[in-house]
Amino acid sequence: MVRGAVVARKVVLMMSVSLDGYIEGPNRDIGWHVVDVELHRHLNQQVKAMGAFLHGRVVHELMADYWPTADADPDSPEHVIEFAGIWRDMPKYVFSRTLDHAEWNSTIVREVVPDEIRALKEQPGGDLGLGGAELAAEFMRQDLVDEYLVYVHPVLVGRGKPLFPEADRITRLRLIESRTFGNGVVMLRYGRADAPEVPVA
User: Fold this and answer.
1) DSSP structure class, residue 26
2) How far is CA 175 from CA 10, 181, 193, 198, in A?
3) CA gyration radius for the chain?
4) Where is 44: in which H helix or E strand?
């Protein structure tokens, strides 16, 4: 790499998934997520390094319903207090055709426009954390996802909403990093097979 060269930040799909491939069970159930202190602290470090969140309306409203005031409870543990501050301060792009207003450092975006996403990637700052199945599907359809950071939970949900939609093409990936947590969750970080290799810090 040329010294001083500007590296575009990446769009990183960051999601939890069951072993059988679902991000939520029936009725949007995510009670099977296994998030203990070790994993939560790791997730805090991952999102703290991000430059912005790219979320759909459902994910944003789910997060906004709890995290803005999660640290107001004097009994909240340290890792919850830390994440609440990270979430509030992080710039957020909320993709929605129907949402009229979004608070907490949020900007509403109506459509996924590839040129606008590429321009956002050229701005300085950390990578862009992508969340939400429908939004992720649209980003994948537009070939806009650079990395997949997937947390596989030790559970078979049986049915629900799958992480990856059906597609008409094969996307070849390269394993960048993996980690097993004490609670049985396995982190898998994949990059595009055609992307240059960058050492993990």
Assistant:
1) G
2) 16, 18, 9, 12
3) 17
4) helix 37-48
| pLDDT per residue as tens digits for the range 71-87 | 888 888 999 999 999 99
* Spatial contact of 8 and 151, defined as CB atoms under 8 Å apart: no
- Amino acid at site 135: L
Rounded distance between C-alpha atoms, residue 193 and residue 172, angstroms? 6
Beta strands at 128-131 and 11-18: parallel, antiparallel or unpaired: parallel
pTM of the model: 0.88
The confidence band for 1, taking pLDDT boundaries of 50, 70 and 90, is very low
Instruction: Output the six-digit token pair for 143.
Output: 């070939």
Q: How many CA atoms lie within 13 A of 92 on its CB side?
A: 25
Length of the chain, please? 201
Among 12-21, 55-64, 107-116, 179-188, where is mean pLDDT lowest? 55-64
| Angstrom distance (rounded) from CA 7 to CA 69 | 35
Q: In terms of Cα–Cα distance, which of 200, 182, 199, 173 is closest to 13? A: 173
The two structure tokens encoding residue 18: 């069951």
Contacts (Cβ under 8 Å, ≥6 apart) of 198: none
Taking the C-alpha atoms of residue 74 and residue 159, their distance in angstroms, rounded to an integer, is 38
> Quick one: average pLDDT of 155-159?
95
